[in-house]
Design goal:
The chain is an alpha+beta fold. The protein is built from 28 helices and 22 strands. Strands 1, 2, 3, 4, 5, 6, 7, 8, 9, 10 and 11 form an 11-stranded antiparallel sheet that branches. It has a 7-stranded antiparallel sheet with strand order 14-13-19-20-21-18-17. Helix 11 runs antiparallel to helix 12, helix 11 runs antiparallel to helix 17 and helix 16 packs across helix 22. The radius of gyration is 28 Å and the shape is globular. The structure holds arginine and aspartic acid. The site of aspartic acid has 9 residues, from strand 20.
């Protein structure tokens, strides 16, 4: 008896553990009712699916905005006030900065709407509605078709469907594949382009901890910035104009002042970019054992050189800060991802899943015929594609990304071919776009740094075990010069490309003459040689094999969905709107280490290094801490919360996503994940994958107490959902009693 009850208890515990961790999945908002509503409510959500996504009435989705195609943002006032991450608005904040007026360093707070700063290249997109158009798109498509025939039928169907639609003025239509092309959804969107900067904390708050703390918990970053959407008098999208007015949203998110506790329901609503949850084990093995290590090693070298430069010279530090952060971001992510894949035994899990798949297939002859050979085919194809994929990564990382000058040199070749094909018109058209780019480029460019990166990475390229043909005569040239350092020195000294004045002088010349000089330039020649070599040896084979893999992936996805009928599938992220839900939860990354889910201002103070470029703290914030002047923003323990963790399944693109409580109020702002869980893009593991969010109260505290921008706080709607719920409960004692009696 005793033993039985213990077993029962253990089972219950495992079950509870399973549901309480439930976090996997990036769900389509229009399908929540059918797939997730019950689950969400059992986890504590008090809303209905219709409150989250509705076509007929204002719902949460009307407050969620795609921010410039890469991040997420949300509306938090009736006057179109928009909240996103500091790192999402970074480019805009930087573009309004100068040495004299450095908004990155000092922060920025518009005192009135008149002071809000317009931005040239910024747009935000709303979703009007989402519809399943699979039937239309796949009409006439058969299993017998070749990939090409299939795609051309689909393209035709999409074109004619789009034509039959009559979108309203300002509406746009997008049709995207889901589940690897087994389903298609249409998105009707509306895009606003007059979006102005309203506020940003200084970097020492908005980027506190910088690259050292990136992807890491405990975290103390106030990673937020504020914008405002402006519209024409009719509330519709309009180009920037002084006459535009603040946009009036269908819905905006109230902000909860009641904070979070471990176990609280959390919903993250946003635009995750890309995940790979359904890969075969052969693909995961390749990412983990071949591609990730190569990319990590390349960036390792580049980052060390840039870092040394940044440490030696303050001007270089400023010039390279943003570039360094960009390169370091995924370098660090891949390291975490690889460790996580190993630790969570991603391969073991995949193998087990594949065994189940095969066992189930055997029970059904037709299914076995259709899907039975897939895994072997993948195995073969991934083996075949491996040298091409690896070479491709080397080429992209070395020639196209980390040696900065190669990109510029390749633009010279582009000018040349445009001139050859379209004469002066083609040349001048591209030149007009190139000049502002180059202007920006040279502002933050140090040839002496890039020359070192060139020498180091090109040597790596030559020594790498990749397809030989892509290396051109790099090895011979290095030998001729007496090594890569000397070769790099000679190239950088003799080429005009690293030199801004020479470059602009050349561009101001007559196109024919300019091109003659370009053709003689050694860096331009090298860029052409390497790109031709890549095209001749890799491009075509890679893309042929990749098409085959993509095709198989569609069939494998279909197979998985047919075989595991008890499983709820969510489509891989593809930069479309998704909902993920989970709970506030800490985690234990390794033996004897456990992280609490909430971090406090006290922790930022512990990390404080005066004058440091990562861990400095503004004086005003130190003062507020000293005097404990926290207003209404402290936790019940008297401390100011900064960040918290949840089990929401997020990825790149979810930055700036709102974190919403059980009632539909904003409680936080998503911006990162924990390092040990970055493998969630390939192998989500509920026990260790956590997203990192800024606590909404910290945002309010900074806006109100630190910046004194009380007019912005007044514009928002601050609520007390937990306190109110208690009051309501006290008003309904009868109901509660009844339920208790029934349970007993
Ligand atoms: N890791 C986060 C994301 O992938 C934050 C990146 C920005 N912060 C940084 N220190 N680079 O976007
Ligand atoms: N930091 C990421 C972003 O910018 C979010 C993530 O990868 O978790 O979207």
């Amino acid at each position: 008896m005793k033993k039985n009850s213990r077993i029962l208890l253990t089972l219950c515990f495992i079950f509870i553990l399973k549901i309480s961790y439930a976090g996997e999945g990036m769900w389509l908002p229009q399908l929540l009712k059918a797939l997730n509503e019950g689950d969400m409510q059992s986890m504590g959500m008090k809303m209905s699916a219709e409150d989250i996504y509705s076509v007929n009435q204002g719902s949460l989705k009307d407050a969620i905005v795609h921010f410039n195609g890469g991040c997420t943002s949300e509306i938090i006032s009736a006057e179109g006030l928009l909240l996103t991450n500091h790192h999402c608005g970074y480019g805009q904040i930087q573009s309004h900065s100068s040495v004299k007026n450095n908004l990155l360093k000092n922060g920025f707070w518009a005192k009135s709407k008149k002071e809000e700063l317009p931005n040239d290249n910024l747009e935000v997109t709303f979703i009007v509605r989402i519809e399943d158009v699979s039937k239309m798109v796949l009409e006439g498509v058969t299993d017998e078709m070749s990939t090409k025939e299939r795609q051309s039928q689909i393209d035709k169907n999409i074109a004619s469907y789009k034509q039959s639609m009559r979108p309203l003025k300002h509406e746009e239509i997008q049709i995207k594949p889901f589940f690897k092309g087994n389903q298609y959804f249409m998105f009707v969107t509306m895009t606003y382009t007059d979006v102005r900067l309203v506020g940003a904390p200084p970097e020492s708050i908005g980027k506190f901890g910088s690259d050292t703390d990136n992807w890491v918990f405990p975290r103390h970053t106030g990673d937020f910035s504020l914008f405002r959407i402006y519209a024409g008098a009719d509330n519709m999208p309009a180009d920037y104009s002084i006459d535009n007015v603040p946009f009036k949203p269908k819905h905006f998110l109230p902000i909860s002042l009641d904070g979070v506790e471990e176990g609280d329901f959390t919903l993250v609503f946003g635009y995750p970019g890309r995940t790979n949850q359904y890969l075969p084990s052969s693909a995961v093995a390749q990412t983990m054992n071949v591609l990730n290590p190569a990319k990590i090693a390349i960036r390792d070298k580049a980052l060390k050189i840039v870092d040394a430069g940044m440490r030696s010279d303050e001007a270089i530090r400023i010039q390279y800060a943003s570039k360094y952060a960009r390169i370091a971001n995924y370098w660090k992510k891949w390291i975490g991802e690889n460790q996580g894949l190993k630790k969570s035994d991603a391969m073991g899990r995949k193998h087990k899943y594949e065994q189940d798949f095969m066992t189930r297939l055997k029970a059904d002859r037709t299914m076995h015929v259709k899907y039975g050979s897939l895994l072997n085919d993948f195995e073969k194809l991934y083996k075949e594609i491996e040298p091409y994929a690896l070479t491709r990564d080397y080429y992209n990382e070395i020639v196209r990304r980390n040696i900065e000058i190669m990109t510029v040199a390749s633009y010279m070749n582009r000018l040349e071919s445009l001139y050859a094909n379209n004469g002066a018109t083609g040349y001048n058209g591209f030149k007009a776009r190139l000049e502002p780019f180059l202007d920006d480029f040279y502002k933050n460019y140090r040839p002496e740094i890039d020359q070192k990166v060139f020498a180091s990475l090109m040597e790596m390229y030559v020594n790498a075990d990749i397809i030989e043909g892509v290396k051109g005569d790099l090895a011979a040239m290095a030998k001729k010069h007496g090594g890569f350092d000397k070769y790099a020195k000679s190239l950088f000294e003799s080429s005009f490309v690293p030199n801004k004045n020479q470059m602009f002088k050349l561009l101001s010349a007559d196109p024919k003459m300019a091109i003659e000089s370009m053709q003689k330039d050694p860096l331009v020649q090298l860029a052409k040689q390497l790109s031709d070599a890549y095209d001749a040896n890799v491009s075509k084979e890679y893309s042929n094999l990749n098409t085959k893999i993509t095709d198989l992936m569609r069939i494998y996805m279909e197979g998985q969905m047919k075989v595991f009928t008890e499983k709820k599938f969510f489509p891989d992220a593809n930069s479309t709107m998704r909902v993920t839900y989970g709970k506030v939860a800490g985690y234990s990354p390794r033996d004897a280490v456990t992280y609490n889910p909430v971090s406090y201002l006290d922790g930022a103070i512990e990390k404080y290094v005066p004058g440091d470029y990562e861990f400095d703290i503004p004086k005003k914030l130190l003062d507020l801490y000293e005097t404990k002047d926290y207003g209404q923003y402290a936790d019940s323990n008297g401390k100011v919360p900064i960040c918290f963790l949840g089990t929401n399944h997020t990825t790149g693109g979810n930055s700036g996503s709102p974190v919403i409580d059980a009632h539909g109020n904003l409680i936080g702002l998503n911006f990162d994940r924990v390092w040990e869980g970055t493998m969630s893009d390939i192998n989500y593991d509920a026990s260790i994958c956590r997203n990192i969010m800024v606590d909404a109260r910290y945002i309010l505290f900074i806006v109100d107490k630190f910046a004194g921008a009380t007019h912005l706080v007044k514009e928002m709607k601050l609520v007390h959902p937990k306190k109110d719920a208690k009051v309501i409960k006290m008003e309904e004692p009868k109901k509660k009693k009844k339920r208790r009696r029934r349970r007993g």
